[in-house]
Amino acid sequence: MKNNFIQRAVTGVLFVVVLVGCILYSPLSFGILFTLISALSVYEFTHLMNQSGEVSINKAIAGLGGAYLFLALMGFCTQATDARVFLPYLALLLYLMITELYLKKKNPIGNWAFSMLSQLYVALPFALLNVLAFQNTPEISSVTYNPILPLSIFVFIWLSDTGAYCVGSMIGKHRLFERISPKKSWEGSIGGGIFSIASSFAFAHFFPFMPVWQWAGLAVTVVIFGTWGDLTESLMKRQLGIKDSGNILPGHGGMLDRFDSALMAIPAAVVYLYILTIFQ
């Protein structure tokens, strides 16, 4: 038990240090890290689907698609290239569709569906981090790298998870979604939300490129959709009859276990910030 706790603690600290360090260090380290995370997460998702025995997906091609989508959107957001950079990605999706005509597998519709889901559910959210990280400044005709926005998403998620665990352990009585996740409570979720919203005031103080209310709104958005993201992965694992999505992170499970909340929180954050720009 003690060794497992130490293992979890060491892995958790290293995970946070690498993630925060790569986001803050440079656009290059940010790009390398999340290209790798995208590929591994999509590969893990397709591996889980294949293990179910119901479908047979090309894991390597799907993982390559996840990596390429991140790099393509990064190139587009930094104005290093135009929209034509997405053409190879479209060709890859067509390949996944067309090959099913010739492979004679038992469930081609399922293979199509889960191949596309691997891109929509896993690859696209990571790629959308580029929309948060790179801001176009028309006044000076340049793109700037702002690591604080993508970093804030993960900070809000981590504080929400930590707060939910602490508060839920102490006073959690009312189950949030017992059918899918019996341990989660309303008290814990609200407590985690308060932790995240409190941290948004610190972000507003040290990084005032958004007013306090916008930072607080971003935190609320991340907490709500992050909770749904967590529950979505829990439902998937319950359906598959597994405890963890993988074992790549000792003591913490797989990539999807670590990024389940982010898979819904990131797209929601992009939509939230885009709505803000409409009404400014």
What features would you describe in this structure?
By secondary structure, the chain is mainly alpha-helical. The chain folds into two domains: 138 residues, no CATH class; 134 residues, no CATH class. It has twelve helices and four strands; from the N terminus they run αααααααββαββαααα. The chain has a two-stranded antiparallel ribbon. Helix 2 runs antiparallel to helix 3. The radius of gyration is 19 Å and the shape is globular. The chain starts with a helix and ends with a helix. It holds the Pfam family CTP_transf_1.
Strand residue percentage: 5-15%
| Strand order within the widest beta sheet | 1-2
Which sheet architecture does the biggest sheet show? 2 strands, antiparallel
What gross morphology would you assign? globular
Residue windows where pLDDT falls under 50 for at least 5 positions: none
Please tally the β strands and state the result. Answer: 4
SSE pattern, N- to C-terminal: HHHHHHHEEHEEHHHH
pLDDT averaged over residues: 91
Number of domains: 2
Number of helices: 12
Main location: membrane
Keywords: Cell membrane, Lipid biosynthesis, Lipid metabolism, Membrane, Nucleotidyltransferase, Phospholipid biosynthesis, Phospholipid metabolism, Transferase, Transmembrane, Transmembrane helix
Membrane topology: Multi-pass membrane protein
Pathway: Phospholipid metabolism; CDP-diacylglycerol biosynthesis; CDP-diacylglycerol from sn-glycerol 3-phosphate: step 3/3; Lipid metabolism
